[in-house]
Structure formats: structure tokens, C-alpha cells
Amino acid sequence: MDALKQELKENIIEQLNLEDMTTEDIANDDMLFGDGLGLDSIDALELIVMLDKSYGIKLTDPKEGRAIFESINTMAAYITEHRTK
Amino acid sequence: MMKKVYIQSVASISAQKTFEKDYFLEEIEDYEANVINVINPVYKDYIPPAAARRMAKGIKMGVVASKIALHDAGLESVDAVITGTGMGCVRDSEKFVSAIIDNDEQYLTPTSFIQSTHNTVGGQIALELQCKGYNFTYVHASNSFESALFDAKLQLELNEEKNILIGGVDELGDHTTKINKLINHIKAEAVKSSELLVSNTTGAVYGEGANFFVLSNEKKDTCYAELASVKMFNTLAEEEVLQEFKLFLKENNLKVEDIDLLVLGNNGDIEFDGYYNNLSKEFNNTQQAYYKHLCGEFHTASSFAFWLASKVLKIQSLPEVAKLNQKTIATYKTVLLYNQYRGENHSFTLLKKC
Fold it and tell me: By the number of CB atoms within 10 A of the CB, which of B104, B190, B255, B309 ranks highest?
């Protein structure tokens, strides 16, 4: 699980061009949207594509995203349970 | 009565350190290449990281150049933003198209697509300035900047706007550069900047850059120059250029000897430099300048010439490195710019001392 969390942080930094951030800057329970990392709706789309491409998870219900993308912890838990690759 | 149009401020990001305040080509970056990139300012000093993270280089160059131009004009905002670009945000276009191919038309993400349009730079500038006025982007190959210039000139003359931010911006993209090498639009060999015009080969040394200006219909003590006239032609035969040039001078009540400085867009391509050489011969008693050895060739490279000419008229000095002949002039009053690319999209731009 820890390796997955590290991988997620690296992917998020790369995919979302968070040039000034390192993996150490993102805590596992930091809020990714809103007051935390400050990600926005375009980033949410990028994350949905990332789940599909990297882990074979297709999110069909957009409402699910709100809970899944809350933090690195919630993302890692969902991916561990639903990944197909 | 039609109002006059003045250049209030200038800003340039190019392959020289033109983004530095008061720099005027004193120390030159001498290249030996067939493609030259800009010298980047510290973008973070101008753009918040959250905003910058989705911006490709061309957008950053445009936004920063626009901020420098506004600062130079002492303005917080403008009435309109008019941008010219030949290729637009080519890096994001390449990224998006590559992703389509690499991922077999799946897993497409929105960012590069959103940012890949030609008017992204103009849009981002307006967002940064919170300018909700007229916003237009001209995409017309090597007449893109002049089209923006012409639009701004008409609006200011008719007093529809007071202050307009205009600019020309183009960025280099890896794939586009590769294609331009394949079709020999880029020189096959590396060329020293100082030897560009004697390279005696086909193709150009490609470059990139962003040059922005605030134009206004109010004359201030700090003005750089007056924009007197702009004229564009899509197609002209080599022998027609001189004829059209004479007509342009006549329309502006000028004679050849009234021109104090002629700024030519020679890029060292033996196939097309003849267009410039014809004019150069006609103006053999006039001081002449060139600039594409300093910034490279790109669709809005003429905006660098506009920056150069504006500074010449304000400072009353032509940098040694830009001199094409050894004629001297006591006072620069009237400067004429001529540009074309591969025999198409010709422009004449006339600037006068304020």
C-alpha cells in the first residue's frame, strides 16, 4: 500500500504539472481538492483518466469521484480494491 | 478627426536577454545552430505557480511579455488584447495529437487539448489582467503580428479604445521543428549568428519569441514612437515588391531619402533573400538593419523588428550588431520595416519619432 501511495504522488505531480512540489509535500491524508492541494475540475478529469490508464478502473458514476479523490489514502484504498491491472 | 497611434511600451522575450530592462543588444548571445530557443526569464517571478502549471512555454512567454509591457506603460489593465501567432500553442497541440496516436485514441486528457488553441495566449493574458474587453487572435502566417497591429491601429484611430495590448508570439515544438527540417525550411547545417546572411544555403535558422506592446491614441512623454502605417500583401512577385514599396511611400507622402532606417527581415535563405536584396539596392544610401540572426525566423519574428525599431526611435541609436551597412544617421525620424517569409505574406510598417 505504501508503494502505491508513493506511486500515486509521483503520478499526480507529473500528470498535473505540479512542478514545485515533491512527494514529501503531499501527506497521505491531505485534501487533494479545495483547501488542500487546490486541485480543480480539470484535474479531476486528469485523475479519472489516470485511474483508467494505469489501474484499469473506469469510473462510471462521477459522484463516486468526490469520495475516491478525497486524499491519497482514499485513492489508494479504492485502487487496491478495484484495480484490474 | 482620426487619432494618431503611439507605442507606449515595449517588451520582448527572445534568444537575447531582451526581457531585461534597459538592455538593448549590447552583449549578444552568439549561436551556432539551425534552431535557437529563447533565453527564459524566471517565469515564477511573474506568474503564480498554480496558474503557470498548465501553461506551455509559448503561453508563459506571452503572459510575461504582456506583464512587462503593461508595467513599462504604467498601466494595470488595457481596453483590448490583440495577439498574433503563426503556429499558436504548438507544444500542447503536439502533446495532444501524440497522445491520440500513442494511446490508440483512448485515455485522452483535457489539459493539453484546452491549451492547444491559437487564442490560448490572448485568453490567458485577459484572465491574468481580468480584462473583459475585445480579445482577438490573428493567425495569418508571417502577417499574424501585422494583422494584430492593423486591427489595433484602426480601433485607436477611430477612438474605439484608448489603450490596446498587442503582441506576436510563437514557440518551437519538437515535432514541428523535425518536420520543418525534413522539408528543408530549416537549414540543414548549423550557422553562426554573425554569418547568417552569407551562409549561401536554403532554409532559415528557426527561432521563437514573444514581443508585446501597449499602443495608445494619447501621446505621452514616455512614448517610443508613432505607428504611422501598416500594409500587408499575401503574395508579391520579387519584381513587384519595389513597385509596391514606392506606392507605399507615396501614400505616406514620403520619398526614399526620407527614410532614416530600413529594417529588413533577411533570414539567410538564398531562395528568398532576393526580395530583400532588391529593396536594399534601392535604399543603398539609407542605413539598413537586420535582426533574424538575433531572434531566429518564426511567423511573428517581425514583432522583434517592431521592438528593435521602437527602441531605435526612442533611444536614437542602432545597436552595432543589427547594422546591415555602414551608413550613419544623425537623427532617427522615420523607420521602415519590411518582412516576408518564403515569398509570401509581405508587410511594410512605418514608424515615426514622437
Answer: B309
